[in-house]
Amino acid sequence: MLPAMPHDAREEFLAAPRVGVLGVTDPRGGDRAPLVVPVWYGYEPGGEIVVETGRETIKAQLLRAAGRFSLCVQDERRPYRFVSVEGPVTAVEDPIDPAVREALAHRYLDPEEARDYLAGTAGQLKDDIAFRMRPQRWRSADFGAFAAGFEGAAGADAG
Fold it and tell me: Is the pTM of this model over 0.85?
């Protein structure tokens, strides 16, 4: 069994600016898997996940229909770590608050890039909405702790 992250560590991990992978049920047909897409997201420890999307996108339609979603974030550098959360949609902000959109841009881009991005995509503001989700179930793993057990065993064998 892989070691889960302690509560505070998983909250901090999720709060770091990582690209998340959002998953939501897709009931449009029996042969469809859930929709799984990369997203920018916002999160502060103890708070809600916020995700921005276009009002008419399939993602928005599925999020409204399902009323819940999952988000998984990972660190691809060794030692690998991940946090996955799922929970109910608690609010839909339609239209998105411009401050929320600005905060997301500044979370992922340096100040100059964020300014240029926001200026270049200003037209989207009227079409974008935000979904908020309260994490209800958490899954996490820290492979660093897992690997440390092997390193200790290897060192004991070498001596």
Answer: yes
